[in-house]
Amino acid sequence: MEQLVKENTNEVQVEQKPKKKAWKGILFSVLALFAFWGIQVLISGAASVIFMGQCIGEAGGDMTAGQELYMDKIQNSGFMTNILCLTTAISAIVAILWYKLAFVRKYTVEKKEELRKNVLHGKVIAMLIIVAVGCYSLDVTIANLVAWLSPAAMDSFDSIMGAALSGSLVISFLTMVILAPVAEECLLRGIVFQMLSKRFTAIPAVVLSALFFSLYHLNIMQALYVLPLGLLLGYTAYKCKSVLPCILIHMVNNLMPFLIMMLPEGLHGVATFVTIFIVCAVILFFLWKMQSKEER
């Protein structure tokens, strides 16, 4: 993906200079994560209280019966899926507005044209999609390795995800494939990475943004296997100077589980994902070679 953005000599020299007050970038990133966690907790908490009140009302004011009805409904009515969709949608709106007001409005016409010319065209988009599919395969392989080392941790993670996505398939798709990538990329690569890159050189900024991305998910299983994706997204944000390619990669990555569900059960094993990863790597290699020949 070296061809995505052309850096001039002055930009390279600036990137090599040590950044000052690095702790401010880390503190800002932590506070940004807490802000978005706070939004999610407040919204889900308020919705739960309202839903609990409705259940108690349906139970004729009986607190015990109302609580039992509440527990039954949140497990079987798709309540958790709907709440996840609502909190993710509001997080996406806040992240988009914050990113737009803080960074996008400062983009020059030349920068927008450079993005359109160097990134937003067919070949690069195809490469981004292939990279996303390959990275997802690597993530799943890591997840299977972690599950083999700690089956209990994977069982706990599966039960959490099962409860969160047990409702409508359409709402689950909207949340995971559309809303979550937009919210997380505007936050992690649009806001956090931008602030980190002002205080760190490229590699530390990419690594730190990946670590914050893992931390954002708040469970050890997901934190481990999304780390390669976080590194890829941070590198993409650095090279492309935009969150748009990152959103595309993230969307494709989150779409993959829905596509995998359509495969026969026998093709859900590690061998399938290793094969997909190898095929993606080979395709990317040949696309890179073709691109190199065209640039000569």
How would you describe what is shown here?
The chain is mainly alpha-helical and 296 residues long. Helix content is 82%, strand content 0%. It is built from 13 helices and no strands. The protein is globular and about 75 Å long. The N terminus is likely disordered.
Percent in helix: over 70%
Q: Which shape, going by the Cα principal axes?
A: globular
Structural class: mainly alpha
Q: β content, as a range?
A: under 5%
In round numbers, the mean pLDDT is: 82
Low-confidence stretches: 2-18
Largest sheet: none
Describe the secondary structure blueprint for this structure:
Layout: H1 9-16, H2 22-58, H3 63-76, H4 79-102, H5 109-118, H6 122-149, H7 151-164, H8 169-197, H9 202-216, H10 220-225, H11 227-240, H12 244-260, H13 270-295
Helix pairs in contact: 2-3, 2-4, 2-8, 4-8, 6-7, 6-11, 6-12, 6-13, 8-9, 8-11, 8-12, 9-11, 11-12
Question: Main attributes?
Answer:
296 residues, mainly alpha, 13 helices, globular, disordered N terminus
In short:
The chain has 13 helices and no strands. By secondary structure, it is mostly helical.
